[in-house]
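Sample entry was shown:
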Amino acid sequence: MVLSIGDLSRRTGVKVPTIRYYESIGLLPAPARSDGGQRRYGRAHLERLGFVRHARDLGFEIEAIRELLAMAEDREGACGEAHAITRAHLADVEDRIARLSALRDELRAMLACDNGTVAQCRIIEVLADHEQCLHERH
């Protein structure tokens, strides 16, 4: 299997500039080049880029993906570190969800005004005085 960068992009859904970026930071190994200098990708590139794309879709940071890729190359190694990376990522996601829930509650509470005048507008009052917020952190 030999793919151009455009073919690799279409097959993985990863944009060409992103593929080049992943190459530049070492997440994707540099491909062979044709006599004319065009990049030529193989199955290993396709599979690795699929791994990276899926990990990015799940919100993993680049450094975590780099570590997970290294672990994936050692099929007999223990997966404890993969669990630790994923647990840390899950904790970050749960924290973001909590902050977004607080933000949603805050915005709903701000919308409790009756569309009267600006002088009586709950939205303006809350934005002007953070102490009127439901949550300190949102």
Summary: The chain is about 60% helix and 5% strand. The mean pLDDT is 90. Strands lie at 32-33, 39-40.
